[in-house]
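QUALITY CONTROL LOG
STEP: pairwise intake check
CHECKER ROLE: data steward
CRITERIA: each record must contain a sequence immediately followed by its structure tokens, with no blank fields

ENTRY 1 OF 2
RESULT FIELD BELOW
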Amino acid sequence: MQKVSAGLLMYRVRDGELEFLLAHPGGPFWKDRDAGAWTIPKGEIEPGEEPLAAAQREFEEEVGFKPDGGGFLPLTPIQQRSGKIVHAWAFAGDCDPSHVRSGTFKMEWPPKSGCFLDCPEVDRAAFFRMAEAMQKINPAQAALLEEFERKWRAA
């Protein structure tokens, strides 16, 4: 069965420039990866859960900030290299990324070692302007940034 996730793309405008909040995955696998590793806060949709509700829940679980204010703009779903479909919504917001509080998950590390670590889902987050965000984000998710930027400029 194909995995389906939902997430939120928080944006703000500083000095007339769009900035996007991106999250860096936690755990040893991602520790030294940067370009192409960052993501929008997202996670799997639970059975019977509405995708937007899942996106809001996952945003709060992964970065520790409640996505208040509404105004969620749907973006075209994307498919990641793994085959996972990601539904996303953009919303205006602001936060201090240095105060990220993420949930954790258990991970066997090193693989097949029998040793398990508690890892944060997100180890850090930051706002990036478009050019830098495009370098940082998972390549499949770049389409979300581009689509939102087009809609923002057209508004």
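ENTRY 2 OF 2
RESULT FIELD BELOW
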Amino acid sequence: MPLDLQIIRANEFVRMGAEGHFDLSASRAALSELAAACLKRGLNRALVDLRKIHPGPKPIFTPDDLASLINTFREMGFTKEHRLAVLYTEDPHHRARDFAFMSRLRGWHVCAFDDFEAALTWLSGDEEDLADYVMARGESVPVKPERSQSLPRSKPKIKPRH
């Protein structure tokens, strides 16, 4: 079965400012152009290839950045019929997987992969493949528990009855 697919490489949309920091507005503008090109060509499958990004000790994208990038696809006219795969090599800060998870919470068909062939297989599959893939991975999302400050416990005051 033929598959029409747009591959969006990180260097095509990730923009850095003069001081080497992630430039969200420039990145969104570049991503907007790429998303518009997909829609104009009538493509409903895209792969965001992040394999050339090598994360440092701190994440490049904040959760707000991820939400903003997700909104870029929606603003450009991507619908829930579209399918987006995010391909990564390293994801120590879980940003690729968070992007996919946040997108799925909004009803989008987005999945993160560390394997190119798995991503293509999923992109070429049907709707049930998404649920099967997500369930089969059984990938847990790390949750950092908040540290609760221990408050000193005081003994309950009991008033004597007279």
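INTAKE CHECK: passed for both entries
DESCRIPTIVE NOTE, ENTRY 2: The beta strands are 6-9, 45-49, 83-87, 109-113.
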